[in-house]
Amino acid sequence: MRLCICICTCERPVGLARLLKALDQQRLGSLAETALRILIIDNGRSRAAVPVVEAYRATGRFPVTYAREETRGLAAVRNRSLAEASAAGADWVALIDDDEFPDRDWLHNLLETALAAGVAACVGPVVPFFDRVPPAWAAAGGFFAKRLPVRDGYVEDGYTANALLDLRVIRALGLSFDMRFNTMGGEDTFFFRALMLAGHRIAWAETAVVYDSIPTHRMRVRWLLARWYRSGSVEAYLGRLRPETVGGRLANAGRGFVRLGGGLLRLGIAGLSLRPATLIGGGYTLCRGAGLLAAVIGLSYREYHPSRYR
Taking the alpha carbons of 307, 20, 128, 93 in that order, is the dihedral positive or negative? Predict the structure, then answer.
C-alpha cells in the first residue's frame, strides 16, 4: 500500500514549515515508513514555498515531491494533487492544508479508521489553534472548529481540511473537484456529496485530530459573516434542481426566505441573552439565507478569487 500526504499551499511558507515538522513526528503504527510520500502543490504567485521544500528534502523523514499549479483556485490545486498522487502510484491520499498541523497519531488513526470501516473516505475533527489569545466570543462560540454530526461512526458530509481518500475508488468513479467552485470554495462539499451519491460512505475518525491555525484577521465577526454568506451560495448548488434554472431559482428563493426568517428569529432570541457569542451565532442562519438569495440573482462571494485569496 502506498500513501501520499497531499498539501496544497499558497504563500504560507511559515505554516508549511510547521506542517512538515509535525509530519516528521508522526507515529505510524503498522504503516510502513517507506510507503509514504509527501506531495506539495504550490498555488502561489511567488516561489516562497521552494526554500521550505528544499530544506525539508535535505533533512526530512519522508520523500517529497513539489509541483506548481498555475491556475489559481481551490478546485484546480486539489485536482492537481489527485493527478500527481495518481502518477506517483498512490493507493490512498491524505489531505491537509498549509495552515494546519496534525496530532502525532493523526495519519495512523485516520488510516486505521478507514480500513476498519471498509470505506473509501474518512474525515476527522479540526480544532482551532489561535495565533494569539482570541476574543471571548470566538472561544465560547466554537465558530472555528470543524466537526460533523456522527451516526454509527459515519458522517453525511466531508471536507479536505482533514481527510483520507481511497484514490483507487476516486479514479474508478472519475471524480474530481468541480471547477464551478474554484474561487468560491465549497468544492470539497460537492466532491464528498458526489462520492456518497455513488454509493460510498464516509467514516468519522474521532482521534485523527488536526489543528487549524487561526490568524488575527480571521478573529473578526465580519470574516465569519462573509464565510457563512459564502456557504449559503454553495448550498444553492446542492439542491435537486440546477440553480440557474427557473425551478432552481424558485427553490433557492424559498429556502433563502425561510432561512432569513429563521435567522431574524434566532437573532431576536439571541439578543435576549446579552451574550456576544450567542448573538453572533444567530447570524449564521441569516447569512446563509442571504447567500441563497444572492445565488437566485446570479451573485456569489468568491472568497478565493486571486484578488483576495488568503
Answer: positive
Print the SS3 string covering the chain: CCEEEEEEECCCHHHHHHHHHHHHCCCCCCCCHHHEEEEEEECCCCCCHHHHHHHHHHHCCCCEEEEECCCCCHHHHHHHHHHHHHHCCCCEEEEEECCEEECCCHHHHHHHHHHHHCCCEEECCEEEEECCCCCHHHHHHCCCCECCCCECCEECCCCCCCEEEEHHHHHHHCCCCCHHHCCCCCHHHHHHHHHHHCCCCEEECCCCCEEEEECHHHCCHHHHHHHHHHHHHHHCCCCCCCCCCHHHHHHHHHHHHHHHHHHHHHHHHHHHHCCHHHHHHHHHHHHHHHHHHHHHCCCCCCCCCCCCCC
**Residue 150 backbone dihedrals phi, psi, to 5 degrees:** -110, 135
User: Does the predicted model carry a pTM greater than 0.85?
Assistant: yes
pLDDT tens for each residue of 237-255: 877 667 778 888 888 899 8
Top CATH class of 3-218 equals alpha beta
Grid coordinates representing 191 are: 466532491
Where along the chain do its domains lie? 3-218, 221-296
Beta bridge partners of 203: 122, 154
Mind listing the pLDDT tens digit for each residue in 124-136?
999 999 999 999 8
